[in-house]
Amino acid sequence: MLSQRLDIALNKLYTAYYNEELNPENCCHCAVGNICDNIDAWKHFTDTHGSVKLNYLGRLNEVLGKRINGYLPSELLYLEAVFLKACGYSLNSRNQLLKPAAVIDQEMMFKGLCATIDYLCALDGVENVMELYKRFDLTANRKGSAVY
Q1: How far is the CA of 36 from the CAs of 12, 42, 98, 132, 135, in angstroms?
Q2: pLDDT value of position 44
Q3: 12/31 Cα distance (integer angstroms)
Q4: CB atoms closer than 10 angstroms to residue 96
Q5: Rounded CA gap, 99 and 60, in Å?
Q6: Which residues, listed in sequence order, are joined to residue 28 by a DSSP beta bridge?
Q7: From CA 74, how far away is CA 82, in angstroms rounded?
Q8: Is residue 53 classed exposed, middle or buried when 0-12, 13-18 and 19+ CB atoms within 10 A define those classes?
Q9: What is the pLDDT of residues 117-132, one digit of tens each?
Q10: In Å, how far are 21, 29, 54, 70 from 5, measured between CA atoms?
Q11: Which of 35, 103, 108, 110 has its CA 20 to 30 A from that of 117?
Q12: Would you call 138 exposed, middle or buried from its count of C-beta atoms within 10 A (0-12, 13-18, 19+)?
């Protein structure tokens, strides 16, 4: 059984992905932005987009146990870092976020979505909900069937 926070987060992410509203370039429409109801309050927990290092405000909120839709500031920052890395982004030595390509395509976005879901499931200690899809895909390919 999924926790309420995980169920809600998954619904928001799936909806954003299928409505093409998942965008790593927009802090209100990235993985965390969608989970946080398309607000950017979470971005103030760090000084560098893509970093998992909490700043003063992030540490204060963390110590006070403040959560946004069930997630601590550190969980949100790590979630965003996972999403960005899976989409191909990286931080350079100056903590600048480097974009992987001029255009982020659907394949890159799907990889980001999958990594995000994997992390969310791990946080709640449940099996990755995407595993069922992967098992189905492998079974169909072994039988020589087309995967739709």
Answers
A1: 9, 8, 24, 26, 30
A2: 96
A3: 9
A4: 11
A5: 30
A6: none
A7: 12
A8: middle
A9: 999 999 999 888 876 5
A10: 20, 18, 22, 6
A11: 103
A12: exposed
- Give dist(CA 129, CA 92) in Å, integer: 32
Tokens of 97: 């976020």
CA distances from 24 to 104, 108, 136, 145 (A): 9, 10, 29, 34
Q: Residues in the chain with pLDDT < 50?
A: 136, 138-148
91 residue type, one letter: L
| Tokens linked to 79 | 């979630």
Q: Which residue is listed with tokens 């500031």?
A: 73
Residue type, 131: E
